[in-house]
Amino acid sequence: QVQLVESGGGLVQAGDSLRLSCATSGRTFSSAIMGWFRQAPGKEREFVAAISWLGSWLYHANSVKGRFTISRDNAKNTVYLQMNSLKPEDTAVYYCAVAPYGGLTKNDYYYWGQGTQVTVSS
């Protein structure tokens, strides 16, 4: 099993930066994809960014390209989401997730953290 714990959320102003962390524990998967998703009230959960646990594959949603950057520290079993130039529309609960066998769809993510709230005021 895999446990994921997000941290780093908070209340910030538009234009500010924030870095989210996702600490992982338990079983690791060499082929895993680590992903960040977000969900605003009344909205569907949407993909934000993903990174392969091994190798160099990266992908960011168009809505955050140029502002958000996903990264990882395998030694610390942690994945990060650096969020710059935050906008009010970025306000959401941000979730870390793991697709243990890779994959590109939401259904490939079998493990999820509890989420961390990011609120951006203007």
From the alpha-carbon coordinates, what is the Rg to the nearest angstrom? 13 Å
Strand content: over 45%
Strands, count: 11
* Continuous helix count: 0
How does this model look, in words?
This protein is mainly beta and 122 residues long. 0% of the residues lie in helices and 52% in strands. Strands 2, 4, 5, 6, 9, 10 and 11 form a seven-stranded mixed sheet that branches. A four-stranded antiparallel sheet has the order 1-3-8-7, with no helix packed on it. A hairpin with a 6-residue loop joins strand 4 and strand 5.
Secondary structure layout:
Elements: E1 2-7, E2 10-13, E3 18-26, E4 33-39, E5 46-52, E6 58-60, E7 68-73, E8 78-83, E9 92-99, E10 111-112, E11 116-121
Parallel strand pairs: 2-11
Antiparallel strand pairs: 1-3, 3-8, 4-5, 4-9, 5-6, 7-8, 9-10, 9-11
Compact overview of the structure:
This protein has no helices and 11 strands. The protein has 122 residues and is mainly β.
Highlighted features:
122 residues; mainly beta; seven-stranded mixed β-sheet; 11 strands; 0% helix
